[in-house]
Structures are given as structure tokens and as C-alpha cells.
Amino acid sequence: MNARLLSLLTALVLTSLPGCGQEGSADSGAPLGSTSAPVFSYFPMAFARVDADGGLTEQFNSGAGLVTVAHTRGSGYYQVNFANLATGANGHVQVTAEGTGNQRCRSAGWFASGTTQVLNVQCNRPDGTLADTAFSVVFFRYQQPTTPVSYAVPAAYLWVTGGSAPWAPSNYNYNPSGVLNSVSRSGPGNYTVTIPNASAYNASMMVTTYGASGAGAPFCQIGSWSASTSTTVNVLCWNNTGVAADSDFALSYSTSGPPLSQQGAHAWFDGTSASPSYSAAFGRYSGCSPASVTGSRGGNLASLIVQGELSAFDGGAFPRASFVNGYGSSPKSCKVESRTASGAGSSSTSITKVRCYDGTGVEVVPVFTFTEVTSDAQGPC
Predict the structure, then answer these.
(1) Are 54 and 98 in contact (CB under 8 A)?
(2) How far apart are CA 27 and CA 121, in angstroms?
(3) Which residue(s) pair with 158 in the sheet?
(4) Hey, is 277 helix, strand or coil?
(5) Residue 24 pLDDT more than 70?
(6) Maximum Cα–Cα distance for the chain, whole Å?
(7) Cα–Cα distance between 168 and 174 in angstroms, integer?
(8) Are the beta carbons of 266 and 371 closer than 8 angstroms?
(9) What is the DSSP letter of 62?
(10) Strands 155-160 and 173-174
(11) Angle (nearest 5°) at CA 199 between 381 and 285
């Protein structure tokens, strides 16, 4: 049992597909960042914030193993390795570019190498030229149940191969209701994902472009979503001139996360604020810890603030990472321009600043989905 989980349990007692393999694999240069830390998560998950040179800014690995990054400067390719996290199931990846400038990042594949989970990331300028930039990447994995759940689906994900006949391979497709997610296409770059038995409209919605490279490299965003007995999500993909273009992508849905039951927040920023009907924050103790997510905008720069009782159960470091996706019917590629955090316990505050760009890299009014992921799960109240 890892140290952080043991600490939490003690406190509670006292208080009461091969296609996702090596396409566009990262450069095999020497590891530039390497560290490990205590962990606490109910599910296999890991995340890293990586700077443009391949150094680790923040990291978390529920496998309690080393996190390393391999990168050759100027290549635009990164390989992020999470030791002790690979167990056979294929999982899910989301990526967001960070820093100033209009670079974009995408998943270039993920796979198991022994017991290490390997994630490849590619970054480029709007014209498709490979370019180094900072980014955040998160990996999480749920096991498809042999017995379907009888309650509303709290989380789902899928990897989609785009094109005229899009496909969501079953081994990269998770839905605990027993009915896998599906995808259809109504035209170039216009996809509808159906998540059966998911009924929460206030949820984390995240999409990451997969495998595209070269001039005119497409990018994908959330067009819209709706929920009744199932949730349908419109995903739109574009080339760098703002013309609809087919692309592969990875999509996740969660009423908390994307990783289930972790402290953090999600929001839909509507161009002015974090819409209260589509936003939620998750504190240290489920249902008991006050937490909020709010947003504002100055010019084309949006600010998301997550406040409340969020912290590590062992009193140690509390790594966080922020993920954003453009939203709406017009092209938007959004990135985290900066992220800061301060305080702990009831005075915890993190601020994520976000800027969005059109296909050619020109700034636009920011409208996007947001998710903050942290290193610690919620504990029972």
C-alpha cells in the first residue's frame, strides 16, 4: 500500500488498439526530467506538466514510479514515460499546450512498454511546422466491467479514427453501462459521439487531436453537447485555414475528472464567465469540502479560478494540471498560457489563464471547456 493511501485510511479510522502504438513516436533522446512522489488515486492515472525543453514542471503517477521525459530540442516531439503504470488495458490520453504563443499539441500515440506506460506528444505551429512548447498530458484507465452498471454512467472515453467511416475501437472504448460509445460523421470534420446511459449535462468534456502532422495539421474542439438518456457530443475538426477537415481524436466524459473522483474542477467558459450550469469543483471530502470554479475575461485572456478545501491528504505536495479545448461552431485552438497555485487546505487557490486562436493562429475570443486535474482523490465525508 502506498504512503498516501495509508495516510488517508489512517485519518478516516481516526475520524470515522495497436493503432495507438508508435505513430509519430517521440525522439529517443536522453531523459530530461526524472522524479517520483507519493500518490493517491482510486484508478490508474498519471499526469505531467512538461516545459518546452522536456523538463518536468509538475508530475503525478499513481503507479508510484518514476516519470521521465525524452526530447531532442527543436524536434517538437516528446516521449513521457510513467513507470509501473502499464497493466494491459489501453486507457485514454488528453493533451493541452501551455505557454505564450499559438503552438498546438496532440497525442501521437500511447502504448505499454513492459510495466511503463509510454505517451508520445507532438507539437507544432499553426502551419504544421514542428515546434517545441510546454504542455500538459494526462493518462487514465478504467476497466470495462463484466457486469454492466445499473446507474447513470459517471465517466466514459473513446479513441476515434476519423475519415469518411469513423470507427471507435472497442479496446480503447470505455462505458460501464455495457453499451460501448459510438461515433458517426455528417461531413468532413463533423462527428457525433454518442455516450449511452450518460445523462449529466454538467460534465467534463475533453477532446484531443490524435496523430495528425505536417502542413495543414488539423485540430479538434467540442462543438456542443446535450444529454437525456444518453449524451451526444458534437466534435468539430479543422485545418489551419479554418476549413473543416477529418481527423482522429480522443474524447473523454466525466461527471468529475476527467479522472473519476479526483479533487479538481471542470467548467464551460462561455466567453464571459464559467457557466454555473456547466461547471463544478470537487474538494477534499466528497460532499463536505467547499470548493468553487469561477471565470472572467480581460481582452482575449480568460482566467479560471479554483478555490476551496483542496489539498493532499499526507500534507505533502499537491500537483495540478489544467486542460482546455476550444468550444463552439467556429475554429478555436485553446491553450493554457499560465497556471499558478497557492495555499492549502481551506485556502487553496489555483489560477489558470487561457488564450484561444483560430486556424491560422490569430487570437479569438476565448470560449472553451476546462478541466483541472490534481494528485489526490476525494475522501469520504
Answers:
(1) no
(2) 10
(3) 173, 251
(4) helix
(5) no
(6) 60
(7) 10
(8) yes
(9) T
(10) antiparallel
(11) 10
